[in-house]
Amino acid sequence: MANKDFFDSELFHELVNDMKEEERFTATYRVEADDFMDARKRAAAIAREQTVECPESLIEGTWIAERILGHVEDIRKAQPGVYYAVISYLPEAVESDFTEFLNMLFGNVSLLPGIRLMSIELPEAMESTFNGPKFGQTGLRELCGVPRGPILMSAVKPLGRSAEELARMAGELALGGCPIIKDDHSLFDQRWAPFADRVRAMADAVHDANAQTGGHSLYVANCTADSLHFLERAYQAEELGADGIMAAPGLVGFSMVKALADAPDFHLPIFLHPCFSGGFVQHEDTGIAPYCYYGQLSRLAGADAVIFTSFGGRFVHSEEDCALIAASLSTPMNYVKTAFPVPSGGMKWQLFPRMCRVYGPNSIFLVGGALQTEGPDLTANTKFFLEKLREAVSQQRW
């Protein structure tokens, strides 16, 4: 059974509808097994490994066995040799610690073959434990001045340009009306474009362009960095005038993103980049389903917009997986705001009609190299891409 079949299945919809009233949170795993008895054995091993990690004889007859040990709630056959196991966990075992939440979902069993985390479902009481995005879709729309429809986003590249050259490019994109302009994910703190110099120059260029046009273009600074330097750069980017920050959770960790999103003295939207995540999401028999990694976990960690590689470009996600990612970022989740899906990875204006059909109006289309190579004038290129996006939107029946 393909991933799409699981998310269309009766099991998945039952979980979404029923777990809101339950006390425990659940995770659904794709498990490879010889038969039902083997699947039940593997599911019990997952429940034990992810919680108590000890022989059951050590906890038999105790409250630990009754409450702390993961409960196997359901096992269903997907296809020969493949089953879906639903396991529930006690929220008090993770409290508000996002790292332990991730550890309980997929810690030790990530080391085992034939096990894939498909989705999670939280009871209403637990959803309020994780604040999620600060701005979400509504807040980001207000910031960039695009009240409806897909939003165009572009990236300033390539690595190797000076801060002044990158700032010139950002300013030209803003003059053309590009609503969101971000650093390429490879721009860190290189000596030919130091972080502070780059962010200050690019923020100034975008704001100067806005002053000329009356626009609301946002500049998003890449703040991915070693350890606590990530947090330092995020705060510095805000001080230097950036309108948002970008980070790669595969490199800095989801918990660092959550710490920033939860901080009351940080006031910028957070964009997540997918680099370093391929090993988690690309293999159907192991890792984490894109629906869960880019959608559910990223949103709970506080992402306002999540970049992922789309169909039609130079990467491998199917149209079905891409649609599921977008859906997971908008599915009602108690008080957690919705976040924007940001399809990327070789997008061209020729894909806009298909992207509009798949992703709908609440999406951000990230176009980098194709916009730069459309012609020598970035301002004219931006206006051209915006017009092509308007044409694609006009063909939809939302």
Topology, pairings included?
Layout: H1 3-7, H2 10-18, E1 25-32, H3 36-49, H4 63-68, E2 71-79, E3 82-89, H5 98-106, E4 115-121, H6 124-127, H7 136-144, E5 151-156, H8 163-175, E6 180-183, H9 195-213, E7 218-222, H10 229-240, E8 244-247, H11 249-252, H12 254-262, E9 270-272, H13 278-281, E10 287-288, H14 290-300, E11 305-309, H15 319-330, E12 340-344, H16 352-359, E13 364-366, H17 369-372, H18 378-394
Parallel strand pairs: 4-10, 5-6, 5-13, 6-7, 7-8, 8-9, 9-11, 11-12
Antiparallel strand pairs: 1-3, 1-4, 2-3
Distance between the termini: 31 Å
Beta-sheet strand percentage?
Answer: 15-25%
How many β-strand stretches? Answer: 13
**Topology-level CATH name of the largest domain:** TIM Barrel
Helix content: 40-55%
Structural class: alpha/beta
The CATH superfamily of the largest domain appears as: Ribulose bisphosphate carboxylase, large subunit, C-terminal domain
What profile does the largest beta sheet have? Answer: 8 strands, parallel
**Highest CATH level, the class of the largest domain:** Alpha Beta
The shape is: globular
Q: How many helix segments?
A: 18
- What is the C-alpha radius of gyration, as a whole number of Å? 22 Å
> Judging by the overall fold, what is the CATH architecture of the largest domain?
Alpha-Beta Barrel
Low-pLDDT segments, ≥5 res: none
User: What is the count of distinct domains?
Assistant: 2
> What is the average of the pLDDT values?
95
Strand order of the largest sheet: 12-11-9-8-7-6-5-13
